[in-house]
Known about the structure:
- The protein has helices spanning 27-36, 60-73, 86-96, 103-114, 118-133, 159-194, 210-218, 261-266, 268-275, 291-304, 350-361, 377-385, 408-417, 422-429, and strands at 10-17, 40-48, 77-80, 99-101, 199-204, 235-241, 245-251, 279-285, 312-317, 328-331, 337-341, 365-372, 389-394, 400-407.
- By secondary structure, the protein is of the alpha/beta class.
- The longest helix has 36 residues, at 159-194.
Amino acid sequence: MRAEEHQAERTLLVHLEGVRPDEQADAAEFLELALSAGADVVQMCQVMLQQPAARYLIGTGKVGELASLVAELGVELVIFSHDLTPSQERNLERALGCRVVDRIGLILDIFAQRAHTHEGKLQVELAQLEHISTRLVRSRTDLSRQQGGIGLRGPGETQLESDRRLLRVRMRQIRARLEKVRNQRELARRGRRRAEIPAVSLVGYTNTGKSTLFNMLTEADAYAADQLFATLDPTVRRLELEDVGPVTLVDTVGFIRHLPHRLVEAFRATLEESTSADLLLHVVDAAAEQRDEQVGQVEEVLAEIGAGDVPVLEVYNKIDLLDGVRPHVQHDAEGMPVRVWLSARQGEGLDLLQEAMSACLGRELFQACLRLPPEMARLRALLFAADAVLAEEHAEQGDALLEIRLPQVELNRLLSREHLAFDEFVRRFVCAAD
């Protein structure tokens, strides 16, 4: 039977309230996570947790109530909205008589379903193995190779020790492969930097419409759906922007509150696309009730991966779900765009976004008067082709007097094609101010 044909497990959700606000999961988001994983949710229980208990996390009385519910509803799986220690997970499974999964295990399961590329699968497997390694328990000690005897003599390790050793070996292998991926991505980034092609990375909370926006901007067919973590594998496309030229646009995995640290570590090779970007498009669900909290969570993860200093343009998406809001751009005191309001699904405001992106990427404009001798006709032609020439006159000796205006990155790209350093170009051809 194929995986997609498996019947969904009857699931009981246990949402914990009363924990510290910075650790408490949102009930609606918790339910959406479970549904995204394919669970057949039969009920959600709200449990007050004033003081975590070492054995079950929750009190024994509440455990008894949950056990009765599990038996009454025929529950096969119980999912907790809070992280559980390995011992708490095992104790709860024995007490409830069914499988128990915590929030990290739930997110890992969703990631395993969404990974399609070789790199994505490796990253998920590494995170899963790190999670499993803390949950190995001693088993089959009666067959321990330490006992000796025919067929039992070996290197002197128990089955538990053997399992742990195999896990460590596999994790080392995956880390080595991911390091190769990391190096390959760095080489690609260096190539783009040499070609002076700006990189723009889409970031944001999960299910804010990043992939829909990506598809609308690039006419790509990246998978987009109204579910959490619809995109896991990064997609890169080329986009032409007026006054800037070609840029690379990267669609990345969505963030979520309290994103497990091991996931951040496992996906570091992918997330580094954001740290090396020239501009981040922070896509926000404008209609989300907890919009500000989601923005804060994304900023927290960006800071954790070292992308906190990358320039950001906020994109408030899904304005079609708001009354009386039309596509528009908000600017800062210097007149630079800081926030664009649009609807990717309706295709409204995309032109405003591209103009804002051009303004952010081309903020370092080069404007000057040039005096080009006849032998620099090729550079003159390139400047005209780039639509950078505002006016032209000709001197008596045949020199071309050009007034130009173009983004610095575009000028650098043209000069590299002519094997000219910027300092040499300024010294030889830029006219001195009167």
